[in-house]
Amino acid sequence: MNEKGLFENEVLSLLKSAKQKDTSYDKVLSSMCTKPHPIAVKAHMQFIYSNMGDSGLFPGTKYLEEEVIRMMGDMLGDSSACGYLTTGGTEANIQALRTARNIKNKSNPNMVVPASAHFSFDKIADLLGIELRKASMDREFRVDINSVGNLIDKNTIALVGIAGSTEFGQIDPIDKLAKLAMSNDLFLHIDAAFGGFVIPYLDKKYDFDFSVNGVTSITSDPHKMGLSTIPAGGLLFKDEACLLPLEIDTPYLTIRKQYSLAGTRSGAAVAATYAVMKHLGHDGYRHIVKNCIKMTDMLVKGTRKLGVRPLIDPVMNIVALDVPNLDDVRKKMRTKGWTTSVTRNPGAMRLIIMPHLDEKIIDLFISDLELCL
Ligand SMILES: *Cc1c(COP(=O)(O)O)cnc(C)c1O
Question: 195 CA distance to ligand 1 centroid (A)?
Answer without folding.
Answer: 10
